Amino acid sequence: MKKYLINGGNSLFGEIDIESSKNGLLPILSATILTQEECVIHNVPDFLDIKNMVNILIHTGLKCKYDGNTLVINGSNANCNEVGLELTSPLRSSIYTMGAYLGRFKKAKISYPGGCDIGIRPIDLHIRGLKDLGAKIIEQHGNIYCDGSEMRGDKVFLDFPSVGATVNIMLAGVLIEGTTIIYNCAKEPEIVDLQNFLNAMGAKIKGAGSSTITIKGVKKLHKVNWTPIGDRIVAGTYMIACAMCGGKIKLNNCIYEHNEYLINLLSRAGCNILYKDNSIVMETTRRPKSIQKIETMPYPAFATDLQPQIMALQCVSSGNSIIVENLYETRYKHVPELIKMGANIIVKNQTAFINGVDKLYGAEVKASDLRAGAGLVLAGLCAKGYTTINSIEHILRGYDNFDGKLQSLGADIKIIND
Questions:
Q1: Helix (H) / strand (E) containing 177
Q2: What is the pLDDT of residues 236-286, one digit of tens each?
Q3: To 10 degrees, what angle do helices 22-31 and 96-105 make?
Q4: Are strands 143-147 and 179-183 parallel, antiparallel or unpaired?
Q5: How confident is the model at residue 113 (pLDDT cuts 50, 70, 90)?
Q6: 59-65 long-range CB contacts below 8 Å, 24 or more apart?
Q7: Strands 82-83 vs 107-111: parallel, antiparallel or unpaired
Q8: What Cα–Cα distance (Å) separates residue 2 from each residue in 161, 182, 366, 367, 389?
Q9: What is the pLDDT of residue 115?
Q10: Contact 135, 151 (CB under 8 A)
Q11: DSSP state, 191?
Q12: Which of 255, 266, 98 is closest to 188 using CA atoms?
C-alpha cells in the first residue's frame, strides 16, 4: 500500500493547471453511451474514478482509446445494459449508467453503487424520478432492474436538489418521446456542463444552472468534440492549502463563479484573491482569521466536498469556528485524525466546534475517504514535522498528480511504499 510522507512547514509559491472536473466528467462519460457515434473528450485527468467509469464503458461495449490526455470513445458496438457489483462497488457514479442504459437500450440492470463511506446516500430520488417518466423498476437481490420501454416525457418533482438524480433523469430523458421537466433540480456547474455536452450532441435541453430543467426528446445524438470544465473542488483544495501554508499561487483553468462562495470565505479570513482570464491568483501573508460559521449546502452555497479541507484551515486559524455538515451524517471521520495532529475539535451531532491552535504537529493518520484524505494532506503541509497518510487510494480517486503539483509549489511531499 502506498502512503504520503509530508514534511510540513513550507510556504507555497508557483503556478499549476487545474485538471478537468471529476464530478463533471463522470456524467459526461456516462452520456457517451447514448450515441453510436464518436465522442472525443480532451483534458481527461488520471483519476481512479475516471478509470473505473471507462472500465464500465468498455464493459458496455464501447471502444475507448487514449491519445495522451484525450479520450476517444466509440459507442457503435455497445451491446450490454448490465453492470455488476465488481464494477459498481468502487464507484458511486456508476449509478449514472442506469439513466444512460434506459436512454439507449430501454432496459438496465445495475448493482447498487459504492464509493466513499460518508453516510447514507439513498438513490430513491433517482428511482422515483425515472418512475415518473414511466420506467418500471424492481429492486431485488442487491440489483436494480429497469424497464423503460414505455417511458415518455413528463414532469418530475425532486424533494431535494440531488445531483445524481438530476443527472440520471437528464440522461434518461434525452432520447424519449415528449418533454421532460425537472423541478427543484441540482444547480451545480457540472449539471450545466452536462447540458452543454448533450446539446453539442444534438439534445434539446435548457435551464441547467436554475431550479428547472426542460428536456425535449430527440431521436438520436451525434458525435462531439468536448473539453470539460475545470475541477472546482480541486481548485478549492489548492486555495485552502495556500491559506494554511502562506505564499502566492496561480491556478489556471478555473472559473471564478464556480468557487465564489469559498473565495468570499477565504477573503474574510484575510486572503488576497484575484481573477483574470480563467486564472485565480491567491496570496496569503499572515495567519488566517477563523470563519465564525460554515454550513454545507447544495450549490451555490458551500460545497460538502470542501468541508474537510476548510475544517483543516479552521484548525490553524486564529479564533473559534463552527462547521455544520448538513448533507452527509458521517462526514466527520477526519476529525479524530486531525485531533491526533493537535487540533482542538468537539463534534456534537452534525456540528463541529473548532478552537484554532497555533500549530499542528505531524502524525501518522489515515484517509477514510477522498475529501477527508485531502483535508489531512493540507493539515500535514502546514504541520510541524513529518506526517504519514495511509490509505491514499481514496485520495487518488479525485486528484491528478496531487503530490507532483504540490511539489511544484514547494511542498515537501512524496509517495512511499508501505
A1: none
A2: 999 999 999 999 999 999 999 999 999 999 999 999 999 988 999 999 999
A3: 20
A4: unpaired
A5: confident
A6: 59/83, 59/87, 60/33, 60/97, 60/101, 62/32, 62/33
A7: parallel
A8: 37, 43, 12, 12, 9
A9: 47
A10: yes
A11: H
A12: 255
pTM beyond cutoff 0.85? yes
- Residue 58 CA to residue 163 CA, distance in Å, equals 25
Residues with catalytic annotation? 116
Place of cell 458525435: 223
| CA distances for 33 relative to 47, 49, 125, angstroms | 20, 17, 22
CA 105 to chain centroid: 27
Element containing residue 287 per DSSP (H, E): none
Distance CA 257, CA 238 (A): 16
Q: Residue 90 and residue 394: Cα distance in Å, rounded?
A: 10
Neighbouring-strand partners of residue 143: 111, 140
CB 337 within 8 A of CB 376: yes
User: Could you give the residue ranges of the DSSP H alpha helices within 246-343?
Assistant: 260-268, 307-315, 335-340
Question: 323-376 pLDDT, tens per residue?
Answer: 999 987 778 999 999 999 999 999 999 999 999 999 999 999 999 999 999 999
pLDDT bracket for residue 415 (50, 70, 90): very high
- Grid cell 464500465 is found at 56
**CA 266 remoteness from chain centre:** 21
